[in-house]
Amino acid sequence: MKTKLMSLAAVLALSGCNSVDNIPNPSPEQERSAELAYEDLRDGKYEEFLNHLEPQLQVQFKDNEKLMKRFSRSIPQGEYKSKTLMTKQIEEATNQPGQYKVSYEIAYPNNLVQYDVSFDKPNGSDKIRNFNIQVFGKSNP
């Protein structure tokens, strides 16, 4: 009996209400904003890139243009082979607004990029609340 209860508890924990399947995909507007922001940053279109961000994040990048350019230079140039939505999660923390975070895997011939982008909530604003880019593989010249 004890084993059955433990098994049931494990199943319930693994199928909790915050499972990836229960979190909606980004809205078409959020998808488009994430894609355009990535392309604008990659192409060095900094003013256009900033337009996709929430005002607070815009200020951070305007105040630290070197960081924005460093992100820009790290992104592989050219067309990617594939882009896959890997994860989606809702993050809630005390004293901070919640975030709806989605992670993409973007494959290039010699690189793999992990692009994490956050919005306020699923199907919410298309303004980016936060993002991160990690590039794996050959570095750009």
Pattern of helices and strands:
HHHHHEEEE
Q: pLDDT below 50 for ≥5 consecutive residues: which ranges?
A: 1-18
Number of strands: 4
User: Main sheet, how many strands, which sense, barrel?
Assistant: 4 strands, antiparallel
Helix content: 25-40%
Any idea what the shape is?
Answer: globular
Approximate strand percentage? 25-35%
Q: What does the radius of gyration come to?
A: 18 Å
Question: Helix count?
Answer: 5
Instruction: Trace the largest sheet across and list its strands.
Output: 1-2-3-4
Determine the mean pLDDT.
85
> Which structural class do you get from the secondary structure elements?
alpha+beta
Cα distance, first to last residue?
63 Å
Describe this structure in words.
The chain has helices at residues 2-14, 28-42, 46-50, 55-63, 65-74, and strands at 82-93, 96-107, 111-119, 130-137. It has 141 residues and is an alpha+beta fold. It has a four-stranded antiparallel beta sheet, with helices on one face. The radius of gyration is 18 Å and the shape is globular.
Features:
141 residues; alpha+beta; 5 helices; 4 strands; 37% helix
Task: Put the structure in a nutshell.
The protein is α+β, with helices and mostly antiparallel strands and 141 residues long. The protein has five helices and four strands.
Secondary structure layout plus pairing:
Elements: H1 2-14, H2 28-42, H3 46-50, H4 55-63, H5 65-74, E1 82-93, E2 96-107, E3 111-119, E4 130-137
Antiparallel strand pairs: 1-2, 2-3, 3-4
